[in-house]
Amino acid sequence: MKSDTTDPIDIKLQPIQYWLSWFSRGFATGRWDSYFLGRGFDFQGIAPFRDDPDLIRINWKATLISGELQVSQFSEERNIRMFLLANVGPSMAFGSQQTKMERLAIMAAILSFSAYRMKDYFRFVGYTDEIELGFPEPRDRTYPKLLARAILNFDWRGRKRGGLVRAAMSIPNQRSLIVIISDHLGGLSGTERALRIIAPRHEIVPIILWDEREMTLPEGRFGLYPLQDLETGEIRYVFLTRKNRERFRENSLRKRNAIIESFRKFGTEPHFLTGSSEEDLDYLVRIFLTHRLQV
């Protein structure tokens, strides 16, 4: 695990524009910025662009008068409530080039930064077999990196899976955007019980983090190959043959199809991310763009 002094965010934090189908229908159609969540309509005043950098709200008249870039601010925001339910259990500590926990940390930082920029409510709920405490609450613009560090420094050893139901029960009834980030490698009965709780009321974006080594066994190798269960510490050996590789791929495909089927029962499509953090962020942008085009 990384130390507290290590900065896990080696990319520039940039906000992602997210929106919800049921929320956007309350805005006038035909205007792109009417879909941007967090936009209010009651004018509050003018502020320098450096204090509130938002290109969409540049006030050109005030800019010409002052000689400095100015933006309009609004006192009443139509805020979205975003909850990130994230698996921080042992299986998330696995990874090839990056662990799934590292990828989660960067995605959590990006999503919380986006909510901060849009002045939306954000809450992170980390879970193993129960809801885990010790994660910071949003305070200011330093929060995204503080959250990322807390995720990376979380001691997952000795924890178990199964806490998504408890995480779902912690969500208030007020309609919200629920982003679920997990690998869902355990049984899916708990996942479906959690979806029964939140799906009728909220909009869900399921993100499944997998690693390439969870889908295929190494090619070009022969002999015993060790596989360790990070939850129990147990090590098992697989004899690498063409038949076993094919069987492993088939099992992974069956697991993927089972996850898809579970989420589709509740009217939502899971998004599988199997690359690096940079690829994850590109895909995250496409996820929300697809949601907008479906509005």
Structure summarized in a few sentences:
The protein has 295 residues and is of the alpha/beta class. It is 32% helix and 19% strand. It contains 8 helices and 9 strands.
Could you please describe the fold and organization of this structure?
By secondary structure, the protein is an alpha/beta fold. It has one domain: Rossmann fold (3-Layer(aba) Sandwich), CATH 3.40.50. It is 32% helix and 19% strand. It is built from 8 helices and 9 strands. The strands form 3 sheets. The protein has a 5-stranded parallel β-sheet with strand order 4-3-5-6-9. Strands 1-2 form a two-stranded antiparallel ribbon. Strands 7-8 form a two-stranded antiparallel ribbon. Helix 3 links the parallel strand 3 and strand 4. Helix 3 runs antiparallel to helix 4. It is elongated. 30% of the residues are buried.
CATH class: Alpha Beta
The biggest beta sheet is recorded as:
5 strands, parallel
**The CATH architecture:** 3-Layer(aba) Sandwich
- Strand content of the residues, in percent? 15-25%
- The topology string of helices and strands comes to HEHEEHEHHEHEEEHEH
* Rg on CA atoms, Å: 21 Å
Uncertain runs: 1-6, 22-40
Can you tell me the overall shape?
A: elongated
Query: Pairing-aware structural class of the strands and helices?
Result: alpha/beta
Cα(first) to Cα(last) distance is 41 Å
Return the average pLDDT rounded to an integer.
Answer: 80
Strand order of the largest sheet: 4-3-5-6-9
In CATH, the topology is named Rossmann fold
